[in-house]
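Database export, one record per block. Field names are fixed; values are copied verbatim from the stored entry.
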Amino acid sequence: MPIDLAQVDWVYVGVLAILAFLASMVGNILAFNNRGSAALLTALVFAVLFIAWTYYPHHLPLPTRLYDSRAAVTAPAAAPAVATTPARPTPPKNPVTDITPPKNPVTDITPPAR
């Protein structure tokens, strides 16, 4: 099986399934059993519930990510860099020093000398 079921966050899946079920019930009640309207209202109600669940700062230990942040390996914090004076910038290695535009061979034609 290409999906490793041990890596699935089942609490998060369960919460989303409950939100989808509640959205479906509310959408079906509001649409008076009209299938198209119920589907549209279900999608809108689910979007509202999902955004409220995920982004509202309710300060509860609820799953809000698709991955487990505790299992992620974090690197130790690097020491802050010491402020130093910037070194003198090096000049460009381009040998062209003038800023005159190049000559256009089509418009700058000079007749040959006789």
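Remark 1: The chain is about 35% helix and 0% strand.
Remark 2: Residues 10-30 form the longest helix (21 residues).
End of record.
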